[in-house]
Amino acid sequence: MMLVFQIALLVLVLYSLLLVVAVPVLYSSASDWSRAKNVILVGSLLWVLMVIGVGVLSFLK
């Protein structure tokens, strides 16, 4: 179970780093704002679910 938690935490950290780069780039691109808005929304929701999942795994370990 500890390995699953560590992998989930690593994925969360890497995804967070990806969002740190991707979100400002998407905000700065003026073209196709509706698509960028949807990508940011889905990416943020996925991040929240990952944080909750890591929290649950942390509680279970």
Features:
mainly alpha; elongated; 61 residues; single chain; 2 helices; Helix Hairpins; transmembrane helix; reaction center
Account of the 3D structure:
This protein is mostly helical. It has helices at about 1-30, 35-60. It has one domain (about 1-60): Photosystem II PsbZ, reaction centre (Helix Hairpins), CATH 1.10.287. The chain starts with a helix and ends with a helix. It is elongated. Helix 1 packs antiparallel against helix 2 (about 35-60). The chain has 2 helices and no strands.
Beta content comes to under 5%
CATH architecture: Orthogonal Bundle
Integer count of domains: 1
The top-level CATH class is Mainly Alpha
Number of strands: 0
**Secondary structure tally, helices:** 2
Distance between the termini: 6 Å
- Give the full name of the CATH homologous superfamily: Photosystem II PsbZ, reaction centre
* SS-derived structural category: mainly alpha
CATH fold annotation: Helix Hairpins
Task: Return residue spans where pLDDT drops below 50 for at least 5 consecutive residues.
Answer: none
User: Largest sheet at a glance?
Assistant: none
* Inertia-based shape: elongated
Q: What is the alpha-carbon Rg in Å? A: 14 Å
Q: Helical percent range? A: over 70%
Overall residue-averaged pLDDT value: 93
Order of helices and strands: HH
What is the compact description of this entry?
The protein has one domain (2-60): Helix Hairpins. It is 90% helix and 0% strand.
